[in-house]
Amino acid sequence: MRAERRRLIVVSNRGPVTYGRDASGAQVTRRGGGGLVTAVDSLASSYDVTWIASAFSEEDRAVAEEAGGAFEETSRRGSPFRLRLVAHDPAAYERHYNVVANPMLWFIQHRLWDLVRAPVLDAEFHEAWYAGYVLVNFGFADAVVDELALDPDATVFFHDYHLYLGPRIVRVRSPEARLVHFVHIPWVSLDSWTVLPADMRRAVHDGLLANDLVGFHTERWRRLFTEAAAAITGETTRTIARPISVDPEELDAVAQGEAVLERQAALRRERPERLIVRVDRTDPSKNILRGFRAFELLLESHPEHRGRVRMLALLDPSRQDIQEYAAYVEDIERSAAEVNQRAGSEVIDLRVADDFPLSVAAYKEYDVLFVNPIFDGLNLVAKEGPLLNERDGVLVLSENAGAAEELAPWALVVSPFDVEEQAEALHRALELPAAERRERLSALREHVRAHDIAWWAEGLFAALDG
Fold this sequence. Notes:
Largest sheet: 8 strands, mixed
Strand content: 15-25%
Radius of gyration: 22 Å
Number of helices: 18
Structural class: alpha/beta
CATH architecture of the largest domain: 3-Layer(aba) Sandwich
Number of domains: 2
Oligomer: single chain
């Protein structure tokens, strides 16, 4: 007799689908992007899922109003789930997302603030916290409590930094609820949290402590949370380090799709002898500028690579409504142009566009995958690329990417700040003997397939039940 499937109320800022209208006025459904959505979307095949997320588009809001609650949808793999879209007040959501969550919390947790100059927390920021971040978290909590009234035994599964206050609000209203929260970005020490006013930093930690279990990608992030939470609140809760992963079956299917195969054929027609690939969002945490400088140093220090090696930088535009992000894209474009000008040719092939099929095609074609973030909760590119690569490619990986804790035995691990070390790692990766390249990639791929998204979820819920 088959055991009853666990019932989940998944809560995240971004949902698995968004709605719009095409030129003819017909409603169209677009699958949500981002590593979190892609990973969590596959849970619908193993669990009975109700997913609560923000309504982004006007059509999202219209769908939410028409449904008056949750409605039926299907995952990428065709599994059914219930979707509930929360239509926040637009001004409150703007404050929540573009002032508090990004950049404030994101910059704190990725150590991106230049503290000599920023941030400056004025009355506008305080208003954004109380009339934005707090309000939006109450909106999510209201939806969770409504769903728990229908199914009190469901497990509530919160995700990430947009929702730090939600668990405490739900706990007060539904004391017996089972709550788990997974934080997909790095955690930082008490010293870093002092950027945030005392009442706000306490609210962040207290909100997470309301959960029965808080999950992180690495032991490093987990330890920093428990230390900071104890120092700020005097409290603790159960925590777990469990690195998220990918759905290999779905990635394999995507890699054989027509769009990917067309782009792969184009890459093969124009590829140099050796190809270094990076796939990132245009986020300051991704360390793209130092990556370009490291590649330039490679060509300067090892002229034998000139004319034989090119970097393909596939960058997805990110959060362009935020000044720091828009300025960073300009810096990226200027830096790539300057490197190419000094080299006398297009040694960096920069493409700033949302083109996932092209990224997947590049995964298959790289000789070196360059992942050098300043800090990263995990970095799924470091798992996706090796899973699909067809050229015995080598992974060069920042020690501050969460994935380094897991993948270090098979990667070349570097400091994200030391461009000289990165340049030498790129050289070493290009020069590794074929047998060692094959051995590293094979072992890495075997590990990722054995530790997939199902393994991640099963471990979390086993810890919750234990």
